[in-house]
Amino acid sequence: MKQMLVTIVWLLCFLSEIHIAQAQDLSKLLTGNDANESAPAPGQVITVTHLKQNDKKIEKRLLQIFSELDNLKDIKVSVSNGVVILEGEIISKAAETRAIQFAQQIESVVEVENRLVIDQSITKRFPETINKISTFGKQLIAGLPLILMASLIFLVFWALGGWLSQRTALFRRISVNNFIAELLGKITHFVFILIGIVLALNLLDSVALLTTILGAAGIFGLAVGFAIRDTVENFIVSILLSIRNPFEINDFIDIEGRQGNVARLTSRATILISPDGNHIRIPNSTVFKATITNFTRNPVRQFQFDIGVGTAHDLSRAQAVALAMLKTIPGILQEPKPLAIIHELVGSNVVMRIFAWVNQTQHDFLKVRSEAIKSVKQVFDESLITMPNPIYDLRMTHNQESSQETNQQQVETALKTDLQNIDNQTEEVHDMTVDRTVENQISKENIEGKVENLLDPNTPSE
Q: Which residues cross the membrane (predicted)?
């Protein structure tokens, strides 16, 4: 209610100024300067002959003009050979300019010599100011009904636009996206406000003023646009991303090296939650320009790992053993088939690279990969397929006995570990179900936080 009253008062003051300025320019009310004053006429060609009768006619005509104007009545005029001399006291600079202009416009005037003095005494200037204020008040009172009617028209359109902008169901029929629907509502409100301003100015016969206002607003908007261009760019990009979502909530994506599950898309940034639970905020302008890797869009995902095999072993047999083991691991798909290739030969070490596929909607990607590495290592040990041992250069010192005693103490401490607790973890180790920790965190934030989110299941996806 307070904001409404402030808006009404501001509008009344604004329309009052417009109406008065239309009837009589504000600068004239304060200084006596006429807005319709024209610049002095261009210089005329000076004739060779000049009659004294012309000087008297010029003087007479100027005195007649000055006698009709209150601010110029006290000016004395003398003319000699077409040169006009103006003397006396006047109350403003504007009156001085008008007197000179009148003199220059008289035919046969060669030059105007200004000897006028502006009177600064309060006895003359104060009554003049009171007179101007009185004139201003009378014009304001006379135009008050018109100003009130213009204000009423503007307020009606402002309220109507505000009411329509709140009809979200109407705009949802145009766009299923909440963000776009809200944006259309704001645009509708702005259009109605603009219509109300145009009609109000038209009633006050001041439509031409709207062009000046819009021009000034354009210059101001351009300056502000340069100052906050990054924010404006983010907002525009947010509209484009909300129209066609490049990802969905809970998708695990990579944006220029930043990985995480998508929590939400706001009007300024995309929020990811990393696997370790941290929030990552990426400006939408960066998201729009970046190369995005979506690991969730295709539920089937491939993993790989390397394992070393000694050069003395049959490599084909090692490949067959690894593939046979992979086919028995829960979570690894039979189609596409697992793959084991000889990747490279490095010294005495043959690197075998294992490829396998996981359905991420049914099994956890990292758990299946971990189980695959462990199982292949175990089956290699059982098949007597050894991995090359690293070669170290050992240097013996004189503190061997002390070192052996320390190692023996560490082994004895390790043996005291509760073996029963380790056995209880076996089931958890072999658990291949999907880890929903981050997804549950995202769902909780979106439900409890009630934060802005431009990602909508009904919006087309890329």
A: 140-163, 183-201, 207-228
Size of the chain in residues: 462
Give the sign of the dihedral formed by CA 162, CA 167, CA 171, CA 177.
positive
Q: Tell me the whole-structure pTM to 2 decimals.
A: 0.51
State the burial class of residue 242 (Cβ atoms within 10 Å of its Cβ: 0-12, 13-18, 19+): buried
Closest-CA residue to 267 (of 228, 238, 229): 238
| Residue 146 clears pLDDT 70, i.e. is over it | yes
Mean pLDDT of 136-142: 80
> Given this model, what pLDDT does residue 401 score?
55
The answer on pLDDT for 415 being more than 50 is no
DSSP 8-state class, residue 245: B
pLDDT tens-digit series, residues 8-30: 555 555 555 544 444 444 344 33
Region 445-459: mean pLDDT is 62
| Cα separations in angstroms, 15 against 185, 216, 251, 434 | 27, 18, 55, 67
CB 292 within 8 Å of CB 253:
yes
Write the single-letter amino acid at 415. L
Domains of the chain: 22-125 (3.30.1340.30), 126-227 (no CATH), 246-296+435-462 (2.30.30.60), 300-389 (3.30.70.100)
Strands 111-118 and 83-90: parallel
Confidence of residue 369 (pLDDT cuts 50, 70, 90): very high
* DSSP single-letter state for residue 244: S
Q: Is 41 helix (H, G, I), strand (E, B) or coil?
A: coil
For residue 67 the two structure tokens come to 């006698």
Calpha distance 325→322 (Å, rounded): 5
Higher model confidence: residue 413 or residue 335? 335
